[in-house]
Amino acid sequence: MEEPEPAGATAPPPGLRSLLPPREFLCSRKGQLLLAESVLSFIIFICYIASLAASSFMTAPLLEFLLALFLFFAYASKLNEKFKGLHWPLMDFLRCVTAAIIYFAISIAAVSKYNDGASKAAGVFGFIATIVYAIDFYITFNDLVTSLKQGSSDSPEGRKSE
Prior knowledge:
The chain has helices at residues 23-27, 29-50, 54-57, 59-76, 79-82, 88-113, 117-154, 156-161. It is globular. It is mainly α and 162 residues long. The protein has a single domain, classed as Four Helix Bundle (Hemerythrin (Met), subunit A) (Up-down Bundle), CATH 1.20.120. It starts with 22 loop residues before the first helix and ends with a helix. Helix 2 (29-50) packs antiparallel against helix 7 (117-154) and helix 4 (59-76) packs antiparallel against helix 6.
């Protein structure tokens, strides 16, 4: 005869563990990109705080960190499926494009204008973040084009032409 499982074994215990994103999302490409963006933005923010360029460049990495963290938890908790009024791929695409441009510009300025090690480190991490954000906006752009093509074939004008 099989022994019954204890009542607590079927569900994870409530608490801090319930705040963690599901493993499927962490293993997905979008989850890994958002996690990398969050970590890089936080590292760049810390580097700028420790550098001479703190007053000039500190705000952009902080905002990008908060936006990436928000989208990470929004996608992990499937808010994009619950709130259909927002066009999530377009919002994510615009965030990635602006972040890539901003990180590229402030990284060039930090590396060329400031001579301390923290500014140079922030600039190098900024170039890495530029690449990560560029990869993310390329992937998001392809998803956006696919969703727009599917949306146009569902519209009445798309059905008339077929």
